[in-house]
Amino acid sequence: MKKILVIDDDQFFSKTLEAALPADKYILLSAEDGEIGLEKLKSEKPDLVILDLMMPKLDGTAFLKRLQESPDLPKVPVLVSSNLSSVKKISDVMTMGAVGYVIKSDESLQSIVQDIERVIGQETKKE
Amino acid sequence: MNIALFGGASLYMFFGLVVLVLITFVFYFYFSLKKREKEITKEREESTRRIYELAILKELGERVGYSLDVEEILQIITGSLRQFIDYTAVGYVVINPGKLKVNTHIEKSVSREFLSEMKSRMVASLSALTDKTYDLENIDEVLSGAIVIDEIKQNIGSLFNIPLVIDGEVVGVLTVAHVTSGLYKEADMTILYKITGQASEAVTRLQEVVKKEKGKLNAMVESMGDGVLMVDSEYRVVVANPAIKRIIKADVSKDVSIFDFIDILGGKFDIRGKLEESVSKKVSYVSERINIDEVFFEIGVYPVAHHLAKGGNQILGAVVVFHDISKDIELERVREEFTGMIVHELRSPLDGVKKIIELIVSGSVDTGSDKFKEYLNMAHQSSASMLELVNDILDLSKLQAGKFEVNKEKANIKEVIENRISFYKISADGRGVSLDLWAGENVPELLEFDPQAVKQILNNFLSNALKFTSKGGAILVSAFVYNPKEALPNLDRSKVSVFPEAADLKVKSPSLCVAVSDTGIGIPEDSIKDLFHTFKQAKLNPVDKEIKGTGLGLVIAKGIAEEHGGTVGVVAKEGVGSCFFFTIPL
């Protein structure tokens, strides 16, 4: 079982994603802002973080920055999923260590699930 | 015979007399004619001289009109002098910075001694007029005309000096000299005096105008917010206003050179290249945004041409204008951010609906299950919030285009408020927040306003109050009439404590005031000013994280109140509560 932490203030997204993910392979945890996300990252040690960008309190970009700057935080692959589609934003977060960028509204749940499986598969291979 | 003799002799005598008289007459006429002719010649000479005097004065007026150069004026005078004054040599001395300049034109060959005598008398005259001594050795000298022949022993016979005075100051001396003595009469000197007088008057006047215009121009350039730099055709700085000195971080009181600009602009803007291009090709150029430290500029380079009287242009240099566009860029950024937010706020719920439908279509959710119900509820919420946002955007664009229509009618404000309170009561009860109305006794039954539009304001104020008030808190809607000539009515302050004071209401005539007070988190002082601003949203953290806002509602509320001739406002105390209010004049 792989743990996936969804940090997104959009509750619908985590709920629909949970329904779309095969329940026998993944456990989905959710956090509604970056701060709670950081706490859950430390306490739950997930295998993958799905990170939204526009969020209250600590937003996605600040979350990535925190992750880069703090060596004591667990090194977890981060897949950014947002409705922000500016090229600059995408390249910004990619240089900040994200493993991928999903424009939520451009992709179906099924393709997001495939992205998740691909990233987790790669990480497993690395190990 | 005798008779005949007598008759013959007397006849001779008679004829002789007649001839004598005739001769006398002829002589008389001849001489008087001669005299008349002389007079006419003299008159003609006089009028020629006058015409010449007028012509030269006119010519001087015209030519001097285009020149402020003293030397040029003196050259014009000396050049046209020959036509009415006879001279061996004519010259002038002018005070140039550093040294004197003597320019002599020789009409008939003279000796070196003649010239040196003329020069020393010229300089002596200038020395006497200016009360200064000049070094005779250190003089720029120009000679023209006939050749110098030392063998000619004739020295100066006649000479006179005319000072050239400009703006009350002697700037030079004009000298006319002749080998013959006693030649120049009062009349000659008078006309030359007139000519130089006219010239100096014209120059003085012109200088005054130029000084005044220059003063205006300088004041304008000095006070300009944009940086202005002017260079001549050799790229020397002619004008650099304080703004441009501040831009390049130079001392405002010191002079700057083109190199200061080359240094500070570095590779960002090729100022030298653009200036060269501008001067040589007579073309203007405006740059893209260029940043100097944190400030953005648009740099324009424009050629400066002088339109010549005889046609054509003469390039004098170029002007560089640094226009600060930081504010435009900031506005652009805020707009982009706003558009980005709106797009995000629209996309998220729409995407939510899409994903929910995707799940349902895929058949992974049982239509009879609670999950299915939950998903349908989510889809409903999403579409509702989207619709609200779309309506807000439409209202906002109507307001901005001035097309938002307010349909005033006689309506009962208390009923309208009660209607909204009952609408929000369910959600307030759900959150454990009390929601009440307090209406002043002085509120009339019927008032002129648009009930739908006022409902929109109330929706916004009430939903905001609910967002930021936590469990156990209170929301109170107060409605009252405030007359600025009277005291504020006694409000019910038992459950909430934040209310607008008389000064906050800013009403000039008796007005209906509706205030929505809460016991929420309040608003930080520095965020208050952005609240009613179109593209800014105060960064607040609502109690309920599921509720987000675009901040458009407040802008729309402001628009609606203003369409009614009223105002909106807010007072807040951090940690105590906020109160949003609107006023409508009665």
What does this entry look like structurally?
The complex is a heterodimer of chains A (127) and B (586). Chain A has one domain (2-126): 3-Layer(aba) Sandwich (Rossmann fold), CATH 3.40.50.2300. The model of chain A has no long low-confidence stretch (mean pLDDT 85). Helices cover 46% and strands 20% of the residues of chain A. Chain A has a 5-stranded parallel beta sheet with strand order 2-1-3-4-5, with helices on both faces. Chain A has 127 residues and is α/β, with parallel strands linked by helices. Chain A has helices at residues 11-20, 34-44, 60-69, 87-95, 109-126, and strands at 2-7, 26-31, 48-51, 78-82, 100-103. Chain A is built from 5 helices and 5 strands. Chain B has 586 residues and is an alpha+beta fold. Chain B has 4 domains: 64-211, 2-Layer Sandwich (Beta-Lactamase); 225-324, PAS domain (Beta-Lactamase, 2-Layer Sandwich), CATH 3.30.450.20; 329-398, Helix Hairpins (Orthogonal Bundle), CATH 1.10.287.130; 407-585, Histidine kinase-like ATPase, C-terminal domain (Heat Shock Protein 90). Chain B is 48% helix and 22% strand. Chain B contains 14 helices and 17 strands. Chain B has helices at residues 2-65, 70-81, 112-130, 186-223, 242-247, 258-265, 271-281, 326-361, 370-400, 413-431, 451-468, 502-505, 525-528, 552-563; strands at residues 89-95, 100-106, 139-145, 158-166, 169-178, 227-232, 237-240, 285-292, 295-307, 313-324, 409-411, 434-439, 447-449, 474-482, 511-518, 567-573, 577-585. In chain B, the strands form 4 sheets. In chain B, strands 3-2-1-5-4 form a 5-stranded mixed beta sheet, with helices on both faces. In chain B, strands 7-6-10-9-8 form a 5-stranded antiparallel beta sheet, with helices on both faces. Chain B has a 5-stranded mixed beta sheet with strand order 12-14-15-17-16. Chain B is elongated, with a radius of gyration of 48 Å. Classes of the chains: A alpha/beta (127), B alpha+beta (586). The A-B interface holds A 9-13, 15-17, 19-20, 32-33, 54, 56-57, 83-84, 86, 104-105, 108-110 and B 340-341, 343-344, 347-352, 354-356, 358-359, 362, 364-365, 371, 374-375, 378, 382, 541, 545-546, 548.
